[in-house]
Amino acid sequence: MTALRRRLLHDGWTVSVGDGPHELDERTRIPATVPGCVHTDLLAAGLIDDPFADDNESAQRWIGQTDWNYRTRFDAEPGGADRHDLVFDGLDTVADVRLNGTLVLSARNQHRSHRVDVTDLLRHGGNDLDIRFTSPVRWANAQSAVLGARPRPYPLPYEAIRKSASSFGWDWGIHTATSGIWRPVALESWSTARIDRILLDARPEDAGRGILRADIRIKRADPEAELRVSVDLLGEHRQAVIPAGGDHVLIELPLEDVQRWWPVGYGEQALYEVDVELLHDSAVVDSRRRRVGFRTVRWDTSPDAHGTGFTLHINDRPVLVKGVNWIPDDALVTRVTGDQYRRRLAQARDAHVNLVRVWGGGIYESEEFYDICDEMGVLTWQDFLFACAAYPEEEPLRSEVEAESREHIVRLSGHASLVLLCGNNENLMGHDDWGWQRSLDGATWGAGYYFELLPRLVADLAPGTPYIPGSPFHPGGGRANDERHGPVHLWEQWNTDDWRTYRRHAPRFVAEFGWQGPPAWSTLADAVHDAPLTPESPGMLVHQKAAEGNAKLRDGLLAHLPVPREMADWHWAMQWNQAAAIRFALGHFRSTGITSGTIVWQLNDCWPVTSWSAVDSAGRRKPLWHALRQAYSPREIVVDEDARTVTLLNDTDQAWTGPVRLRRLAFDGTELARSEHQARVRPRSIETFTIDDDVAEPVHPGSELIVVDLDHQRGFGWFTEPRASSLEPAAIESTVAATPEGATVTVVARNLVRDLSLLVDRAHPDATVDRALVTLLPGESAQFAITAVSDPAALQDPLVMRSLNDLVRNTTA
């Protein structure tokens, strides 16, 4: 008896062009990488330029309008096993698969896997495997004509095809419309039976005990064989018999001593390996290894005096959600590696983020992504893949939706980090508030998915996993995006209002809000080669996808600063304004006392673009990342000048006590008034108190500020916008000392220096800095640790060492 054998079929692939608007020789076979996509193959062959540079996006739109043919030949020895299956973990997207000339699969869904029995078709020796991919653009257009047009904010009918919506372009995303074998393909050979599905539910109990429930289904080649399933965890072992003809077993494994799994900031991430074996006559015919964490999860949506809450509880403890939204980390998603996931998620965790929302217009990420989240204690909120459109519920889409949903509920529900499955992104709000109902004229739009199919599947396959029908969502059944009830999305600030108007809102939970800013200078310069480079130069506009994006950047800055004329100053001003907007919003939301979580749009980028991201597509941290790290700090001081209050935020398990020193200072450092408050902030809570009148009321608002100190935390209050202040050009002295890692820069301020930041990628493209947005009073100093810089003196360049002072005096006058 031999165990299941999995042989990857990743070698020897070529790709050639089919029907479509191309100028390639159809006889030419281009070497293809699997997993991969046609864009990366064409790029490797030197047949296209970098899709992300300049306006190559437009020049390469033909790729998504063209059919592509993939081919390989592999040797096989069909004997020695009862069954041989071709297993495709992911085909993107409309693919007809032929083995030795016979059609064995017609795939129509990027988001699911496929398994095909090819036992009778497999030949000794050479076997020809051919896959024809139909143009996703032409297919989606044809399906839209059949199913009926549906409302959406973008031109191409991504709702008519089960493919990553953002691959057709988004307000931060490039149009690629890829095709290819985007996840592994293998030949699996097995006898008697194999494991088909494992559902694991690890629940903690009192006194350190726990219980593991393993729900296991099998597929048979021999219907008469009696089988056994074995489950092992922490030395505990249970077996169960599957009689002839059976295909399912439920095993419960009680445990006496397990540690609970906690999100980052609340405890350790205890994970345990579970071994599952399928046996026949004492021989192992298939096996799997999984990891689990013992924890409970629920979302409290109880009505209260403020409306309807939306509070996450892990192990019966409320958790303040400090989140970021996640999009695919590369528009060519097959290039994303496990190391890249680890770097990006570490950047989230290092900014004190404890939850990542995987947005519904991208992809279900690879197993590595969720494994890393489990290890790091970064919670995951997973959207089902429906975003910003009315989705048809007719066949053949409905069956595809059910198949993909079943697969990913099973795959993801065992991860300790998964705390929420969400039906869609903004489709409930779209139906209610975007005028869809009239244009739909009675057509389906996805309600059957969100309110019937998906909750039924979750209840059946993963009953311990919370589900909501969409984001935003009203838990009481009212209209979505009511800030008194459940999660909301706040976009009026970016679209029409100033970011100071965040203070008008006291939402129960914010699942999306954000502000745009350009990528790091090096990232921008590598992708856009305009001469001269200006905010409105052609390449810059290609890399700005938001409707009226540059106008919104300008209008959103004007209340705070003049718009600079020089490109370098414009770049810094927009990066500063992005950071200032989100820092202000997060401070306000955390101070309300009723906002139980925030999820900033967005952590990452998929290509070099002006966007809402904190980390750009090259992995460079923008000033926004440092603002997140400050605003999500476990302890933070927020000064609300208008309300003349101070709020102390304590997201730790220890009380925060001590004398709070409040001072009103002139910009030259002269103390004008002071007071003191004794802080007694309980664990995981906030305290708000009113500032004494003599500190709160300035004589010269444009040249005074409030400074609040407690322990090593500091908060600032400003009486006017920067543009109306008397902030002078920064007078600083800096020294640079080389270190084994790079350099340390020490800065001494001779006058008030506000939001000092070192844009270190200008000194070296690989350089990083440990802090930014540092405000120094006259006479104070700060150190910055820099890595990967070859010329330390370059760190003192005025284009590297920036502050808000530069922007107040760098005006358009």
UniProtKB/TrEMBL annotation:
Chemical reaction(s) catalysed: Hydrolysis of terminal, non-reducing beta-D-mannose residues in beta-D-mannosides
Entry's Gene Ontology BP terms: carbohydrate metabolic process; glycoprotein catabolic process
Organism the protein comes from: Microbacterium bovistercoris
Keywords: Glycosidase, Hydrolase
Molecular function GO labels: beta-mannosidase activity
Name of this protein: beta-mannosidase
Family that this chain belongs to: Belongs to the glycosyl hydrolase 2 family.
Start and end residues of each Beta-mannosidase-like galactose-binding domain: 27-183
InterPro entries named among the record's database cross-references: Beta-gal/glucu_dom_sf, Beta-mannosidase-like_N2, Beta-mannosidase_GH2, Galactose-bd-like_sf, GH, Ig-like_fold, Ig-like_GH2
Record-linked Gene3D superfamilies: Galactose-binding domain-like, Glycosidases, Immunoglobulins
Pfam family, one: Glyco_hydro_2
Keyword Hydrolase: yes
EC number: 3.2.1.25
Highest classification ranks of the organism: Bacteria, Bacillati, Actinomycetota, Actinomycetes, Micrococcales
Signal peptide: none
Glycoside hydrolase family 2 immunoglobulin-like beta-sandwich domain segment(s): 195-295
Transmembrane region(s): none
